[in-house]
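Thread: Newbie trying to understand structure tokens

Hi all, I'm a second-year student working on a class project, and my supervisor (Dr. K.) asked me to get a predicted structure for one chain before our next meeting. I've only ever worked with sequences, so writing a 3D structure as a token string is new to me. If someone could post the tokens and maybe explain what I'm looking at, I'd be very grateful. Here's the chain:
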Amino acid sequence: EIDSKEVILDSLTDCTVYLKGCPSVLRLTNNVNCKIFNGPVSSSVFISNCHGCQMYIVGQQLRIHDTTDCDIYQHVTSRTIIENCSRLRFGCYNWKSRLLMILNE
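---
Reply by user tm_fold:
Sure, no problem. This is what the structure looks like when written as tokens:
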């Protein structure tokens, strides 16, 4: 149901979200202590004002603004843009690790 649509996850706290499908755009805003797993996004992923989150991101472009204390595992085809952020940790998107994490929850 999310294929080729814009998906917005806004103001979530202590949530785990699994997005199955291929949205056109993914917007993550004002989320706190969330785990977000997504499949491929056909264009951009926007992260804004998120704190203490763990995100698995696949897309064409990643833009991060006003975000702190997050772990971001990414695979993007262009450069990541980061503005006004602190204490971000990055790793490679790893499908096998993601599956193991899902199975262990």
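A couple of things are worth pointing out once you decode it. The CA atoms of residues 8 and 73 lie 19 Å apart. The chain has a mean pLDDT of 91. Feel free to ask follow-ups in this thread.
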